[in-house]
């Protein structure tokens, strides 16, 4: 047993350090470590051993447009979407990326005008928008595309509109705001369209849809995202981007992601072998929903107790996956500080050793901050306790 342990664990890093009641609590990034507690309890359901001679070739399936996509990942992606009913997969190409971040860039590349003489195409999204959209769009100062800000004030014919739903940072359910024009393209970032965060109200069937294990299962460190793409020529161009950028995507990571997605599907449609022995695989979305409901209720109570913080109203919908009405439980809290003397909520909270991301980074008012709801229990508990202590003035001293 000891030898097997050595073989499979390789002393991995644990990410962020453990916290104590007076630590700095970092909820700036959406690091999904909340899900570790679930996967710790799943035994070998998501365990994988890769012999030294495997996954050595650059190629996975030379007959597929996305020639570096592992067939097993392709199958498990389709199976999970069919199980959950959150996105159409029939007639779609599945593409894999190093996180959905790489596929976001691939989509910009694929949707940009082909003519060398063309002006860069405008990339827009309704504010508040995910802070990486402007950052990733402009960091290489591409001649193909350029960040043009808030979609709701955009005027022009040619654009790429990014639609994130449920939205990072504020959790709203969104649709494209720009009326479709011949020169207009949309990319749907559905990273949070999973039952732990929101009701699954329809089977999404947009032209380009992005997903990631980072938010669906919590395996951000595996760096696997996928795109569902309708159009063959766009799928080819996106594949070309990944080829030029990284010559493909880690096969080890793809196999691990496939194993993890299979374990999630098994929880809801047991394999024949499991069914025969009456075994039931652990159910990720039940765990995720339970945790999110609990955390949102703690956070709402703390914000109310503080008297100075407000949160978006709770919304709900009928979930076709669970067959129940479910509230949205966003992966981030979009928190507003209503104290008159505070015009920069992020620096106010930083003074109380809580790190968050300023509304300004999302094209919004700096009285707002985005707070990750997906950290480990210890950090989340300390955060909520600190927040509720503001009223009594205990939080004021440091
Ligand atoms: N889209 C959204 C809306 C996100 O919030 C994130 C992660 N914070 C990503 C994409 C990127 O995910 P990945 O880890 O797959 O690159």
Largest beta sheet, briefly?
Answer: 7 strands, mixed
Q: How many independent structural domains? A: 2
Residues in helices, as a percent range: 25-40%
Q: Which residues form runs of ≥5 with pLDDT under 50?
A: 394-398
- How much of the residues is beta strand, in percent? 15-25%
Secondary-structure-derived class = alpha/beta
Q: What separation lies between the terminal Cα atoms?
A: 49 Å
Query: How would you describe the shape?
Result: globular
In total, the number of strands is 15
The bound ligands are: 4'-deoxy-4'-aminopyridoxal-5'-phosphate
Q: How are helices and strands ordered from N to C?
A: HEHHEHEHEEEEHEHHHHEEEEHEEEH
Cofactor: pyridoxal 5'-phosphate
Keywords: Membrane, Pyridoxal phosphate, Transmembrane, Transmembrane helix
GO molecular function: carbon-sulfur lyase activity; transaminase activity
Domain Alliinase C-terminal: 25-390
Overview of the molecule:
Helix 5 (132-138) links the parallel strand 3 and strand 4. The protein is built from twelve helices and 15 strands. It is an alpha/beta fold and 398 residues long. The protein has helices at residues 2-9, 36-40, 71-84, 99-111, 132-138, 213-216, 232-246, 251-268, 272-277, 284-306, 345-350, 377-388, and strands spanning 25-26, 93-98, 121-125, 145-150, 159-164, 184-189, 208-212, 224-229, 309-310, 316-319, 324-327, 332-337, 354-355, 357-358, 368-372. Helix 3 packs parallel to helix 8. The strands form four sheets. Strands 2-8-7-6-5-3-4 form a seven-stranded mixed beta sheet, sandwiched between helices. Strands 9-12-15-14 form a four-stranded antiparallel beta sheet. GO terms for molecular function: carbon-sulfur lyase activity; transaminase activity. Residues 25-390 form the Alliinase C-terminal domain.
